[in-house]
Amino acid sequence: MSEEIKSARQAKLEILKLYEEDPEGWHIFLGRDKKGYYNTSVVHRSDFWLIKEEAINPYEAVGYALKTTLQKDPELADEISFGLRPLQGRVEEVDAVLRAMLEQKPLPPSKITSPYVAEGPYIISTRLASLAPSQSELERRLSAELDRLVEKRYSYLRRIYG
Fold it and tell me: Would you tell me how many other CB atoms lie within 10 Å of the CB of residue 33?
């Protein structure tokens, strides 16, 4: 079990590498916490990443992440898993394209040759489900680290204009 805090960017690179090796069985949950930070929970089998970020401008976010191991696999098997799926056929036939897309297994980026790719699904919630027993503690740790970073390097984000 690794609960070392690392940058959100490092965690995303690790997730991308693992997705490239095994693109099936991923689930991504998105939301925001009380402070307005972006929360992303990523589940792949028994691996669980919690990513907390703050947008510092429209093109960049900073944040931290933790990875832990779930004690038991979450009951997400019936859900459509997250993934990259190439779109085949004429885009004008939306229903047929969507049906065909959802029937496909997710592929790693290196295996996609189609000019069009669908990414998702993302599960968006105002309140993220607790997927790990220690999730609230992990969120507190990440929030405290992100508070320190934002206050130190991006304090202008906390100031009121006027």
Answer: 15
Question: 62 — alpha (psi -120 to 50), left (phi > 0) or beta?
Answer: beta
pLDDT band at 44 (very low <50, low <70, confident <90, very high): very high
Q: Are residues 31 and 88 in the same domain?
A: no
Within this chain, do residues 52 and 20 fall inside the same structural domain, yes or no?
Answer: yes
Q: Give the long-range contacts of residues 116-120, CB within 8 A, separation 24 or more.
A: 116/86, 116/87, 116/91, 117/84, 117/85, 117/86, 117/87, 118/84, 118/85, 118/86, 118/87, 119/82, 119/83, 119/84, 120/82, 120/83
The tokens describing 103, both together, are: 């029937």
Token representation of residue 29: 């949950």
Task: Report how many domains make up the chain.
Answer: 2
**pLDDT tens profile 72-128:** 766 766 678 899 998 776 667 778 777 888 888 999 999 999 888 889 988 887 655
User: Closest Cα partner for 70 from 138, 19, 140, 134?
Assistant: 134
Return the bridge partners of 47, or none.
44, 69
Above 60 in pLDDT, residue 33? yes
Whether the CB-CB separation of 13 and 5 falls below 8 Å is answered with no
Q: Is residue 23 part of a domain?
A: yes
For CA atoms 18, 21, 27, 28, the dihedral sign is: positive
